[in-house]
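Final report, closing paragraph on structural work. Over the funding period we assembled a curated collection of sequence-structure pairs, and we close with a single example.
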Amino acid sequence: MQDVVRSRTSETIDDACDQENPVLVEAPPASGKTYNSVRLAAKEGQRILYLTARRDLYAQAIEESEKAGGIKAMVIPSPYRDCPTFADENDGEAEKARKLYQKGLSGEEIHYKPWDTVNTPCQRPGSTCPYLSKRDQLKKNADQIDLLIGNHQHAHVPRYLQGRTVVFDEFNVDPFLTLFPHRTKSGERRNIPHNIVESFLEAVDDIPLADLTDLIEARVRRGDSWQSAIEWFEQNGATKSTSTEQIEITPHPYNDSHQFAALLTCALLIMERVGPGIELAHDPDIWEACDVDPNVRCVRDRNSGEILVLTPPDLSHADQVIALDALPVQRLWEVVLGCDFTLSRVIEREELDRYLDQGLGFNIIQVTEGMNHYSSGRTSSKDRERMFTVRSLEDRRFPIISRKKALDSYASEPWLDQCVMGVDDDEAETDLEGYFARNYAKVLSSNLFEDESVGFVSGSPFPGDDIVKQWAALCGEATEPIRSGDGNSSPLEGFSGFGEEIYRHLTHGQVFQAILRFGRTQNTQKDTTSVYVNTQAVPEWISTSQITIHDMNNNRKRIHILEELLRAKYDEGISWQTQKTLGRRINERLEGESISKETIRRALSDEGISDIIEVRKDAGKGGSDLYQWPSECTLLPYYDRESRANHVLKAGSQAYLIHVPEIIDMPKSVPRQD
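Its predicted structure, as stored:
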């Protein structure tokens, strides 16, 4: 089936290249998206700009172009990758250079403009920074390059798009979305929006607004001062150049200058309410009059004061636009890239389940009945049992994908190294020191687990109600969470309107993408890839099996019954027992306690045991029922040293944590019954 899907992918991408309108190609994993995108550059008259968030795909694209032959390929230079100062490889001021870059200055501006506070020794008289040299080389020879390779942010540079088919590999909003304020890794809040606006208004002499209070009042009244302010922006623009003319940009982290200062100020003037506590600035006519791309959108959360600025790239310079995604939400693609797409599916979603099973050999097993959002980092107390059970069933440790805060929580557990794979390579980039671990935010940009045929995905990546509301607002929609009870602590059932599709994209869709990170190389595709999922946030059209874990330690009397059935089978070879003989054998062994016949009868009829044991109705003496330890099950060692259970009994979709006394002469594990 995989060969058929790969052939369809090739045909779909070829066809998309010849269409007049932008095409969104929905193609499943391992369907040859990268290969077929690169191969387009070999077609006569075609030049390709291939954009991906994954750096490992840069090398793969170069390799594919060499295999195809006759393709001249080049990776677009990056200051972080090619500049010695940005990389902190010289005595220059790397941190200051990076801060200027984050404020909106280009790498070229940082090297050439007289920013006296920044030392860039890579650029001296008589010598040129390697980054700038590569940029100059690309400028001179761009027409001779068949395949340009870069990140999604390079779509903002018109000369890279000119005369090319632009291919966006996977949905990546980061280069187009700016959050104010920005929070650093150390927790500092930088680029606070009202400070940026206040500084801009203070620097402008001829705008009729002295401060933020004046701006808000002008917007409410929509009188002369509001009209005069709008006219000022129409005359001067609300662009980066307007901002830099009014406020000098410096690298100081708390300096209130920013390339979006004018845009933020203008946005606050025209914002309209789109839902409770949410405002949107998106007026194409005013934006155009202010020299701003009409597709720009700004969303403000009144409760938190956060502002999101979405700046889609101008794709009018491209010959054609092709977007590739395994599970796209078309409307989000259109808002982020500012164009209308025609959707073209390689296979229908109803076929994806069969493709995952027959084409890629995926076996997806859920180990919980909850969503497990883990947004605060508080993980479930049952996760220990779940991970140790997977450790036993697979007889190996495994890599893990979860939320960042959840990974931090797991890191504090002393038992984690017994379940999660450790990292042998000190240079391996992971999200949990010493372990093979990734957080959801880095899943799409990582190929860390492509050789692993067993994986564990823990918790849902639900970002919170506010994020769903903000994304809905960017699309011009209002949405509210739907809960099963009163208050924000009640279980979440979904969202109203378009918010539900966004919610499922941010939860179910991201879990699906996490599952696909495992077992994607040729080595692993020959075997089954088993992914254990510790959340119910899986798309409904994906078939999963379920394992329910029972810890028998919470019922000592049931444990006695199971242990006695084990003894009967392996100690004396008398497998079949009645309620009476079981009671007698158990009570002979117990000291200081006893089990009644009624207790045994209730236990044997309880589904916690009846699902495990075999029963012969009326087959014993006097018409009594006979019971024995099952023959078709899997009994494996349980690795949690702190638990009383020392074995896992796997019976169908049930896993029972039980204690097998050492006095029982039995195999360490019963062979699996497939």
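Residues 499-515 form the longest helix (17 residues). Confidence is low (pLDDT under 50) at residues 668-674. We thank the funder for supporting this effort.
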